Amino acid sequence: MTKNNPTKLVIVGGVAGGATAAGRARRLDENAEITLLEASGHISFANCGLPYHIGGDIEKREALLLRTPQDFWNRYRIKALVNARVTRVDRTKKIVSYIQDNTPHEIPYDKLILSQGGEPMQPPITGIENIAHFSLRNVEDMDAIIAAIEKSQHRHAAVVGGGFIGIEVAEALRHRDLKVTLVEFAPQVMPNLDREFANLAERELEKNGVKVLTATTIQSAAPGGLITFSNGATETVDFIVFAAGVKPETGLARAMGLEIGKTGGVVVNDFMQTSDADIYAVGDMAEIQNRITHLPARIALAGPANRQGRLAAENALLGNRCRYRGALGSAVIKIFDKTLAFTGLTEKASEQAKIAAQAVTIHGNNHAGYYPGAERITLKLVFSPIDGRILGAQAFGAEGTEKRIDVIATAIIGWLTVDDLAGLDLTYAPPYSAANDLVNIAAFQAMNHRNGFSPVVAPAEFSAKCDAYCVVDVRNPNEIKNFPQASACQISVDTLRENLDKIPKEKPIAILCQSGQRSYIAQRVLKQSGFENVFNICGGYLAVAADQKMELK
Fold first, then answer.
1. How far apart are CA 56 and CA 130, in angstroms?
2. What is the pTM of this model?
3. Among 216, 244, 272, which residue terminates a domain?
4. Could you give the CA distance from residue 548 to residue 53 in angstroms, rounded to a whole number?
5. What phi and psi, each to the nearest 5 degrees, are found at residue 87?
6. What is the pLDDT of residues 202-231, one digit of tens each?
7. Domain of residue 381, residue span
């Protein structure tokens, strides 16, 4: 619209997608009248940083407060209102009603962007009123948790939920010297991941003093902080933090009559436009599309929310010209000294979406082994057995873990295959990588599996059907002693050629080493010595131990 007839843009929700939409809108249209309404007391705060201030990694509270309402006005001439709770939207008259300081207000709009995020879920607990309990959604929640820590008597807290926020809060509380019990309803922490990576995460939590209870709930809470679990056990805690996921904040959208999708989010098209052409929705509350499966999805992550907000602002002001193509769900989490990252589809998600998938797992150093400080990274690559297209990846390990996942996320968007991935020209210097990066090596193994040069058996399949294989353990005696695994015979890879007559031939052969590298060499020896149906146990004993939740010394 013109300077004399400016577009009236109202944005409901002032964090992540909403704040990004407001800034983008101003850069696109200097004349637009932009109003940002935020129900909490702060706008544009770093909500992903809240656990790190609780734990002391981010020392200054003000570092999380990226912009104030005055900042928005000074720099963008955007009217940002905090403690402004929207109560109604009249789509016919195009009026937003809200309450601020107990006073009702109304504001007209031409275009409306909803960015209300998600509402933390709180599982039912009998007697929950008997104990202090919190969620972690905004700055006020963070302040309340810090206050509870400072006055805690038992120095013990329970965290409900083993996903991103639950793990981050558990670590933060451990940094504050509290005992922590992490309670997860599902059979594993990080429920969306494949089992072995969830087990690696759980192992790291327990290594750092977090007590992890899976397939468990809190049934009741009694005065004095006594909580009772579904397994009958009890503990006394000072408070509970609920981090059991979020449901989309759709109360306002439902009251307006906007279409709600199968996932519970507000249905949007490729332009982030709702069923009302003048209303857009972004972030945790929006039902978008998974970029691989093309199925409806809600992906509650800050990255997608920010990008959606940017697009929604442009489409609202300039007409629908920017399409949102969906999200992969790429994410990373710090778990004490380790990193867990993933992108695209897991094997579990592939199966649920009825997409044919295979996977390989490798272990390698985050940089050249001869350079000081090298540490292990475990990387799983998921791909299509039909055309070799990359579908997803998961990785756990030291510094540089997320770098590999970012490379693979880019490869997925580019529709690259394992052959393409094998040929990627990635940077190399001893402090950062090896001449063949872990990404390349994972692709090599996937290629070898697909063309039959080195077929693998996945750890989960091996664990389920181990009796169907003749297991040949090619590790050295000390490894076998420290990490025993039932096998038909134990022959070091270096003496394999002299002992071929000792290997049984009645069953398919599965070869085991510690990481999968020596077993690959042994497999090639056997396949070229007349043995058929020889499989490499993918990822070796390290992967089997992770899948079976076995301890490593």
1. 28
2. 0.94
3. 244
4. 35
5. -110, -25
6. 999 999 999 999 999 999 999 999 999 999
7. 337-450
Residue 237 lies inside a defined structural domain of this protein: yes
- For residues 341 and 441, state if they share a domain: yes
What one-letter code names the amino acid at 149? I
CA distance linking residue 142 with residue 41, whole number of Å: 12
Which residue is listed with tokens 């997409």?
355
Residues in a beta bridge with 280: 113, 273
Task: Identify the CA nearest to 135 among candidates 150, 123, 151.
Answer: 123
Residue 146: Cβ within 10 Å count: 14
The whole-number mean pLDDT for each consecutive block of 10 residues of the chain, a chain of 553 residues, reads 84 94 97 97 92 96 92 96 97 98 97 94 95 95 97 97 97 98 97 96 97 98 97 97 93 97 97 98 96 94 95 96 95 98 97 96 96 97 97 97 98 98 97 96 97 95 90 94 91 96 93 96 96 95 92 67
Of 79, 104, 72, whose CA–CA distance to 6 is shortest? 79
Same-domain check for residues 113 and 252: yes
Cβ distance 79 to 56 under 8 Å? no
Burial class (CB in 10 A: 0-12, 13-18, 19+), 85: middle
Residue 2: inside a domain: no
Residues identified as active-site: 48
Contact 162, 190 (CB under 8 A): yes
DSSP 122-164: ----BTGGGSEEE--SSHHHHHHHHHHHHT-SS-EEEEE--SH
Q: Which of 181, 211, 244 is the last residue of a domain?
A: 244
- How far is it, in rounded angstroms, from Cα 425 to Cα 236? 55
Residue showing tokens 């090599």: 444
- Residue 358's alpha-carbon distances to 109, 327, 351, 422, 461, in angstroms, are 50, 21, 10, 16, 12
Please state, in angstroms and rounded to a whole number, the distance separating the CA atoms of residues 437 and 367. 8
The reply to whether 147 and 217 lie within a common domain is yes
Residue 179 contacts residue 167 (beta carbons within 8 Å)? no
For residue 291, give both structure tokens. 């970029």
Residues ≥6 apart with Cβ < 8 Å to 44: 14, 15, 19, 65, 66, 67, 72
> How do residues 258-273 score in pLDDT, each as one tens digit?
999 999 999 999 999 9
User: What is the structure's pLDDT at 2?
Assistant: 62
> Could you identify the residue written with the tokens 């290629």?
447
